[in-house]
Amino acid sequence: MKTLNKITAFSILIFTILSSQNIFSQTTKTIIEQDQKIEKLLQEKRKNNSGITINDKFKIQIFYGNIDESKKTLIAFKKEFILLDGTIIFSNPSYKVWVGSFKSKIEAEKTLINIKKKYPSAVIIEPNKK
Predict the structure, then answer these.
(1) Higher-pLDDT residue of 78, 29
(2) Are strands 86-91 and 58-65 parallel, antiparallel or unpaired?
(3) pLDDT at position 6, please?
(4) Please, are residues 69 and 35 in contact by the beta-carbon 8 Å criterion?
(5) Alpha-helix residue ranges (DSSP H) falling in the chain
(6) Which pLDDT score, from 0 to 100, does residue 56 have?
(7) 77-101 mean pLDDT
(8) If you write DSSP's letter for every residue of 37-61 in order, what string do you get?
């Protein structure tokens, strides 16, 4: 009889522990608090990345040479042609300065006319053409 009471008491204890486990468990609801500045930075990053994509069909190459001259050329270009975006691309062993992002060759040629006044060696390129 005493062993039966011990087994019953032990069973009740185990049942109580297992059933109370849900009471003390954590909830699955998660709240994330994020500073609004982070979202602004992400938007700015997305905007900058879209400007340097090479997925468009045509670009204009205004310089080919070393890194220092490439940086100077790009800075000077951005001061004079504010509306056009530019980037420096590494092409072993030199660097290229690519500007603009054009969907058609005609659009690139119209812009090239103005760019050639300042950068006579500028050429239209197709970055994705192999």
Answers:
(1) 78
(2) unpaired
(3) 72
(4) no
(5) 2-24, 36-51, 67-80, 105-118
(6) 61
(7) 91
(8) HHHHHHHHHHHHHHHT---SSEEEE
